[in-house]
Amino acid sequence: QLQLVESGGGFVQSGGSLRLSCVASGFTLDHYAIGWFRQAPGKEREGVSCISSSGGSTYYADSVKGRFTISRDNAKNTVYLQMNSLKPEDTAVYYCNTHFFRGPTPYEYWGQGTKVTVSS
User: Fold this and answer.
1) What percent of the chain has pLDDT over 70?
2) 66: phi > 0 → left, psi -120 to 50 → alpha, else beta; which?
3) Nearest CA to 7 among 91, 85, 84, 78?
4) In whole angstroms, what is the distance from residue 3 CA to residue 108 CA?
5) Backbone torsion region of residue 22, taken as left when φ is above 0, otherwise alpha when ψ lies between -120 and 50, otherwise beta
6) Torsions phi, psi of 12, nearest 5?
7) What is the pLDDT of residues 95-118, one digit of tens each?
8) Do residues 84 and 68 touch, judged by C-beta distance below 8 A?
9) What's the chain's average pLDDT?
10) In the 3-class helix/strand/coil scheme, how is the chain assigned residue by residue?
């Protein structure tokens, strides 16, 4: 069964750091781009960052640019999100995601999320 599992969330003070991990099981990540999304209480889910299958291309939302770094270790089947200089507005549940086609059939997978709380 294909699955994504996030970990690394927690409680941190403003200015602190956390590193989130997204581990795949049931398939190898190295063929797929991976995205990180977050959803704050009462808000819609938003894209935070994504990384290409090779790791050569990355994207960051303006709100996290310069503070977050996405990376991947295909040998460990894991994608990371290093979050530095955290702010209270970064408080959210963070999810990783991948989507791809096999032939004409689309597939999309989400992890269960990991909660990040940043205190002021």
Assistant:
1) 100
2) left
3) 78
4) 10
5) beta
6) -145, 150
7) 999 998 889 999 899 999 999 999
8) yes
9) 95
10) CCEEEEECCEEEECCCCEEEEEEEECCCHHHCCEEEEEECCCCCCEEEEEECCCCCCEEECCCCCCCEEEEEEHHHCEEEEEECCCCHHHCEEEEEEEEEEECCEEEEEECCCEEEEEEC
